[in-house]
Structure of Glucosamine-6-phosphate deaminase:
Amino acid sequence: IGTVVFENSTAASKAVAKEIADLIRVKQAQKQPCILGLATGSSPKGLYAELVRLHKEEGLSFKNVVSFNLDEYYPMEPDSVNSYVRFMKELLFNHVDILPENCHVPDGLLSKENIADYCEQYEAKIEALGGIDLQILGIGGNGHIGFNESGSLKNSKTRLVALDHITRVAASGDFLGLENTPRTAITLGVKKIMEAKRVILMAWGEGKSNIIKASTEGEETSSVPASYLQEHNNATFVLDKEAASKLT
Ligand code: F6R
C-alpha cells in the first residue's frame, strides 16, 4: 500500500481528480471505455466537484466512462433523498456528459429472490468490460470498504449484507434516526474491489486516523476489510494530515 498525505482534502481531491482525468483521456486516445468504480459518502464529494469543474471548464468528456457504484442501501427508492442513485446524479452524473446507460448503481428496489441473480449480473457486466480500471473507495470507521463490514471475506462476492450497528449509527443522521436507517445494503464484494487495476482510498480527518493506521500498519485481517488492500499491487491511500496523523 502506498500512502500519500496532502495538506487538506481539497488538494488531495484535486490530485485524485487529475489522475482520473488523465486515465479517461488515455482511454479516449485508445478508443477504449474507462471503467470507474465509484463510492458515495462524504469523502469523495470534493473529488466529484473537481471532476465536474474539469468537465465544465477544461473540456473533460465522460462519454467513454462506464461507472459502477460500490453499493446502495436495501431497500431504497432511487429518488429518495438518501439513495446513492440520487447522490451520484446530484454530485456527478447530472453535471457531466456520461451516458445514463453507462451509470450503474446497485438496485435498491429488487425483490429479495432476485438479488442473487442481479449481483451475479452486476459482476458479469464488470467482467465483460475487462474489469474496473480505477476504483475509488472511502473507509468506514470500522474499516469497511463498500459495505463489506468486519468479517467480510477476501473472496466475497457482490451480495446483500447486514449493516454493522456503527455503520447504521453513522448514517442515522441522514435518515433522521436509527429506527429509519436501513439494516441491509447491496455491496460490491471484496473480490471485485481487489481485482481493480488501480485502487484509491480517500480518508479525511482525525476521526479516520485510527482505522487508517490499523488498515495500513496493522495485520491483514477480516475484521478490518480495508487491510486486504495491503495485498493489492496498485493501491494508494490518499489522506489529509489529520487522517495520517497516527501513522509511524
Ligand atoms: C460508500 C461506501 C462506504 C463509505 C464509508 C465512508 O459508497 O462504500 O464504504 O465510503 O462509509 O463514508 P464517509 O466518506 O461518509 O466517511
